[in-house]
């Protein structure tokens, strides 16, 4: 019996503004999303605001050392509480000076004692599910969502093996890379290496061995593995003294974040922030001990930006234009039963998750 051919998603999943709107209120509000790094709220009272799934939120560290995430809205008459980042003893609404503890509990407000029956103990900023994952802050608007370790089995323990120094790592740099394409086009491109040898010569010849590249699902994680290039062909010194120093691995956490560990145990991350159906901003992060200047990480960041990232921008933007062509018909995915670098089985899994998120 011949196996059925699996075709790529219809173009509408990448071009229809209504589908993007459904993703914002559905998928992006029910999945674990990257908010920031714990070092951004290192001290009591540190906070930063961010947007996710069409909502304004902010992270804050309380006096017990706990990191909270709140909807950025006062429970009085809906003014936003904070902008940007900073440090505060209490959270004060700029509109009427209603004041909240770092735990979100209402502390005081002008003349509230004049209101008979007013019970401030029942008023609190609305909190959002928050997890710290290897020093990275993730949030989920779904209070009933399963923990990240259920969504992404083994990812935490594997990353701890590849990054035994993760507790010392802080951002060296974050770079925003705008792409004129749907976020899913960019994520798909990231999640296969079928195109690597042809389009990424520096990555394919100076970092990894494409013939050893493979991607396998672990829950809602896509796990990338490969060997690094022969040492004589590497573009930098990979001798870190840690295990796995001669390997490249990546953990893509559905739907919009990925940890990459380059040979030499160098951590970098991708975070996709969807703007609309045709635009996404990719945040590329590079990390070093205490965020201090690091020659190898800086070299890799520059090399990556000038080669792989620039090459990918042209690819994904061309795909987005092609998806709007009347001449496009979704083609068959190349699914090799043996998997490997020239197979699109990882895209098949992604597109299944994408379809389920929209169609149920």
**Fraction of residues in β-strands:** 25-35%
Count all strands and give the number: 17
Secondary-structure element series: HHEEEEEEEEEEHHEHHHEEEEEEHH
Radius of gyration, whole Å: 22 Å
Largest β sheet strand count, sense and barrel closure: 7 strands, antiparallel
Count up the helices.
9
Quick one: CATH superfamily of the largest domain? Naphthalene 1,2-dioxygenase Alpha Subunit, Chain A, domain 1
Strand line-up of the largest beta sheet: 1-10-9-4-3-2-5
Q: Helical proportion?
A: 10-25%
The secondary structure category is: alpha+beta
The shape is globular
CATH classification, class level of the largest domain: Alpha Beta
The rounded distance between the terminal residues' Cα atoms is 29 Å
Low-pLDDT residue intervals, each spanning 5 or more residues: none
CATH-defined architecture of the largest domain: Alpha-Beta Complex
Overall mean pLDDT stands at: 91
CATH topology (level 3) name of the largest domain: Naphthalene 1,2-dioxygenase Alpha Subunit, Chain A, domain 1
Q: How many structural domains can be distinguished in the coordinates? A: 2
Would you give an account of this structure?
It is a single chain. The chain is an alpha+beta fold. It folds into two domains: 33-140, Rieske Iron-sulfur Protein; 152-359, Naphthalene 1,2-dioxygenase Alpha Subunit, Chain A, domain 1. It has helices spanning 12-15, 17-25, 148-151, 155-162, 183-190, 196-199, 201-206, 295-323, 345-359, and strands at 33-37, 46-52, 55-61, 67-71, 85-87, 91-92, 99-100, 106-108, 127-133, 136-140, 169-179, 214-218, 221-227, 247-253, 257-262, 266-276, 279-289. The strands form three sheets. The protein has a seven-stranded antiparallel sheet, with no helix packed on it. Strands 11-17-16-15-14-13-12 form a seven-stranded antiparallel sheet, with helices on both faces. Strand 16 (266-276) and strand 17 (279-289) form a beta hairpin. The radius of gyration is 22 Å and the shape is globular. The mean pLDDT is 91.
